[in-house]
UniProtKB/TrEMBL annotation:
CDD domains: L-asparaginase_II. It comes from the Bacteria. The lineage of its organism: Bacteria, Pseudomonadati, Pseudomonadota, Betaproteobacteria, Burkholderiales. The active site is at T13 (o-isoaspartyl threonine intermediate), T13, T93. Substrate binds at S60, T93, D94. This is Glutamin-(Asparagin-)ase.
Length: 329
């Protein structure tokens, strides 16, 4: 029996259209409707019973917290319907890793949720969207995908939302997880080789149904010669937290320490992360976090640490508990 899969369109390159088939960078993003995308791939009909809806139509660089909340609530309502076996979201690739992680932490269901995009628009020679979407529907339809949280399917790979990040501006293999994908889609079959190790969906304290707003958290990207005023700008904007995407293993330039200490005094939580793209930031390693009452990110990318801190702050203000969350999710 075919699975019933709900498809939610939100825009992105997978919904783009270009003037020329040989130009894969200059095109209009988010102009093709999800119904048009589906009708352009007749092979999808044999995979599952599909119901599609257009929730948003925008490049994912424009996603704000209100869009995360809207998308999460809609998916949650669909997952509560008995006849829906899984949900696929078509999404721009720029912030797909942030949206997927948000859903991974806030949806309360064993049913598969797959977020999918493409690096090339459908109008390009060798577009990747059609096969990515085909594979996403296969993954969402597979009983093997249940209980794995939110997944990102791209370039024949199945990634856990926790780990995946976009790593290239144009390559089809842009989506990488530091520990590798959970599995592959090979010849129309999802094949899993690993399980997500960190808690998600049913094992987190956050339910999308209970969140109506998220606190603001800013990211400051460190570099040689950084002006400490970058940190002050986040503090002065009265945000609730700062993720400091530090150099190396979470080093903070001497002249920036004071600005981060001031941020903490003013009530913002300070999280040391790394701009390197992989590895762990060790608590009390490069900086005395206990003394300063700062947090460390564990191994998470700065943009996903921001999502986690926003969620964490909806339930918790104690530093020790916040730190525990970074080591758990
Ligand atoms: N416009 C970007 C986005 O929506 C690009 C993309 O989808 O790949 O994220």
């Amino acid at each position: 029996m075919k699975a019933n899969i709900a498809i939610i369109g939100t825009g992105g390159t997978i919904a783009g259209r270009g003037e020329s088939s040989v130009n894969t960078s200059a095109y209009a993003c988010s102009v093709v409707s999800v119904d048009e995308i589906l009708s352009g791939i007749p092979e999808l009909a044999s995979l599952a019973n599909l119901q599609a809806e257009q929730l948003l139509q925008m490049g994912s660089e424009n996603f704000a917290t209100e869009h995360l909340l809207l998308l999460g609530s809609r998916i949650s309502r669909l997952l509560q319907q008995d006849h829906v076996d899984g949900v696929v979201v078509t999404h721009g690739t720029d912030t797909i890793d942030e949206t997927a992680y948000f859903l991974h932490l806030t949806l309360k269901s064993m049913k598969p949720v797959v977020v999918v995009g493409s690096m090339r628009p459908p109008s390009a020679l060798s577009p990747d969207g059609p096969l990515n979407l085909y594979n996403a529907i296969l993954v969402a339809s597979s009983p093997a995908s249940r209980g794995k949280g939110t997944l990102v399917v791209s370039n024949d790979e199945i990634h856990t939302a926790r780990d995946v990040v976009k790593t290239s501006t144009f390559k089809l293999e842009s989506f990488r997880s530091p520990y590798g994908p959970l599995g592959y889609v090979v010849e129309g079959m999802p094949r899993y080789y690993r399980e997500p190790a960190r808690s998600h969906t049913l094992e987190t304290p956050w339910s999308i149904e209970e969140i109506d707003r998220l606190p603001e958290v800013g990211i400051v990207y460190a570099h040689g010669g950084i002006d400490a005023g970058m940190v002050d700008a986040v503090t002065n904007a009265r945000m609730s937290g700062i993720v400091y995407a530090a150099t190396g293993n979470g080093n903070v330039a001497e002249h920036v320490v004071g600005a981060l200490l001031r941020a903490r005094r003013e009530g913002l939580h300070v999280v040391r992360a790394s701009r390197t793209g992989s590895g762990v930031v060790i608590r009390n390693g490069a900086q005395p976090d206990d003394k300063y009452d700062w947090l460390v990110v564990d191994d998470q990318a700065p943009q996903k640490a921001r999502i986690l801190l926003m969620l964490a702050l909806t339930r918790e203000a104690r530093s020790a508990e916040l730190q525990r969350m970074f080591h758990r999710y």
